[in-house]
Automatic annotation (TrEMBL):
SUPFAM superfamilies: Outer membrane efflux proteins (OEP). It holds the Pfam family OEP. It is found in: Cell outer membrane. One of its GO terms (molecular function) is porin activity. Belongs to the outer membrane factor (OMF) (TC 1.B.17) family. It comes from Flavobacterium gilvum. Residues 1-18 form the signal peptide. One of its GO terms (cellular component) is cell outer membrane. Keywords: Cell outer membrane, Coiled coil, Membrane, Signal, Transmembrane, Transmembrane beta strand, Transport. Residues 340-389 form a coiled coil. This is Transporter.
Length: 450
């Protein structure tokens, strides 16, 4: 379903490219579609998925230490000068005489296979117990990364929306002011208005047009930022539907459980891994036991043993060995004790981070709750102000046309109406940003995908 949604969103751009069309119409980009696209295309989200995949390979690496280690070996040695030893001649029937005897052969070749199996190693066993926590750590980290991507996309999405709303207001104001200019121009031409009145209207139109250019530039910059946080090509055209900016109530009575937040869970899982690390360091106090076995085949002679036979003076023989290796640590200069204490300090340091993070998460909720409550009141006030300013503008415009109000009154009423609408739009944006923070503080950012 996600891929179908994204394919639908980008279908126009692909069709326009293939057909060579010049039209600029695009599919509306909803917040859900923007987040879905970001989770599948943004580098952080993709790299987080790769970290989960890589964690499986790390776990396999740890497990490998508990499995048999089998290796094959081979060698070929040429001895140009053989070592000699001096022996008592009595061994050769010449007592009292020293005889030099060469040991070995000019050529020696060997091949074999060896096996080593860990029977007891506390460090290895601790690593195996930590494997599950390692996987869970990367899974939680992936969840946190997705939440961070969602938060950035949502905040920038609403910022783009409010800039576009400001542009719509300026466009509307430009149209209305143009109508007033035409009226004043007609009055001036008929001797019913002063040139200064016409000049004031022209100046205001010029200022509105300048504001429009600035807002259009801000929209482009904000849209580029949104596309970046989505992992979307910058040249892609987007359209945001107005229905996405509705103000909806939220339950503010029950504080969320910070223990369910990804930030908190990640730190707790990291604490668990540090405990395993401390246990692994302590394992240096314990003995280790392993089984070894080997089978080898060796050939020696005056000629290269490969493919040679006894008639060539080359003889082959095999040998094997099976045994146990035990290592018992006795004293290493208190090195292990120092490493255990370092591991313990890491744990205690992380525990301080956990406490601080828990306070920060509680603070996020309290602040978001306060902002939500204040913004709801502000929205109500600004909505009423916007209605009143609209009525004042309408009445002032009628009075101006009837000669009962001055041009100054009309311009002041237009400015007040535009300011009231902008204040309302900014209040709604502040509410939506606070709403994202509140949803995040509850650990429910993924509900934006519903």
């Amino acid at each position: 379903m996600k891929r179908i949604l994204l394919a639908t969103f980008l279908s126009f751009a692909l069709n326009a490219q293939s057909q060579g069309t010049s039209t600029t119409a695009v599919q509306p980009l909803t917040l859900k579609a923007a987040i879905t696209y970001a989770l599948e295309n943004k580098a952080e989200a993709r790299k987080s998925k790769l970290s989960i995949e890589n964690s499986e390979y790390k776990i396999q690496e740890i497990r490998a230490k508990a499995l048999p280690q089998i290796a094959a070996n081979g060698s070929l040695t040429y001895n140009p000068i053989l070592q000699t030893n001096v022996l008592d001649g009595a061994m050769f029937g010449k007592p009292g005489e020293a005889i030099q005897v060469s040991f070995g052969q000019k050529w020696t070749s060997g091949a074999g296979v060896s096996l080593n199996q860990t029977i007891f190693d506390e460090a290895v066993f601790t690593g195996l117990r930590a494997a599950k926590s390692t996987r869970e750590f990367y899974q939680i980290n992936d969840q946190l990364t997705e939440e961070q991507v969602i938060e950035r996309v949502a905040n920038n999405y609403y910022s783009v929306y409010v800039q576009r709303e400001r542009l719509i207001l300026l466009d509307s104001n430009y149209v209305n002011t143009t109508k007033v200019r035409d009226i004043v121009k007609g009055q001036y031409e008929n001797g019913l208005a002063k040139k200064i009145d016409l000049d004031r209207i022209i100046v205001k139109l010029s200022n509105i047009d300048t504001d429009r250019q600035q807002i259009q530039n801000q929209i482009e910059l904000q849209e580029n930022a949104l596309k970046f946080y989505m992992g979307m090509p910058i040249e892609t055209k987007i359209v945001i539907p107005k229905t996405e900016f509705a103000v909806t109530p939220h339950a503010l009575t029950e504080a969320p459980n910070t223990a369910n937040r990804s930030e908190f869970l990640l730190l707790k899982k990291q604490e668990e891994l540090l405990e395993f690390n401390k246990t692994a360091v302590k394992a240096e106090y314990y003995p280790t036991l392993s089984l070894f076995a080997g089978y080898n085949y060796i050939g020696q002679g005056p000629e290269m043993p490969l493919f040679a036979k006894p008639k060539d003076g080359v003889y082959w023989s095999d040998y094997s060995a099976i045994g146990l290796n035990m290592r018992v640590p006795i004293f290493n200069g208190f090195g292990t004790r120092a490493r255990v204490r370092q591991a313990d300090v890491q744990i205690r340091s992380l525990q301080e981070d956990i406490k601080d993070t828990q306070l920060a998460l509680d603070l996020d909720y309290r602040n978001a709750k306060t902002q939500i409550e204040n913004n709801i009141k502000t929205i109500q006030i600004q909505k009423e102000n916007m209605r009143l300013a609209g009525e004042i503008l309408k009445n002032t415009k009628n009075n101006y046309l009837q000669g009962l109000a001055s041009l100054t009154d009309l311009l002041d009423a237009e400015n007040a109406s535009l300011e009231a609408q902008n204040n309302y739009t900014r209040a709604v944006l502040a509410y939506k940003i606070a709403e994202i923070t509140l949803i995040k503080s509850k650990g429910e950012l993924k509900t934006l995908l519903n």
